[in-house]
């Protein structure tokens, strides 16, 4: 019987219930779980109010709707998670620049 190392990271997605952002939060949680299943001990959806939409990795805020401007694309948040937990990991298509990132380069 093989033992797997215990996953060590917790993701918390705080979303505004008044703004009806639960489905958006659930979708990004699904995307995160798909990419980081073996690394995470928990992905929590945390109901909030006042327009809040933030994504936290343990005690590190990875995304804030107010400070980062809107909502993250899945590949952007996956890269931010990867950069914290395993910078050498290849995320495949999620490592390719987004359209907005590409236009900044050109």
Automatic annotation (TrEMBL):
It comes from the Bacteria. SUPFAM superfamilies: Thioredoxin-like. InterPro entries: Selenoprotein_Rdx-typ, Thioredoxin-like_sf. Residues 87-106 are annotated as: Disordered. Keywords: Redox-active center. This is Selenoprotein. It comes from Oceanospirillum multiglobuliferum. The lineage of its organism: Bacteria, Pseudomonadati, Pseudomonadota, Gammaproteobacteria, Oceanospirillales.
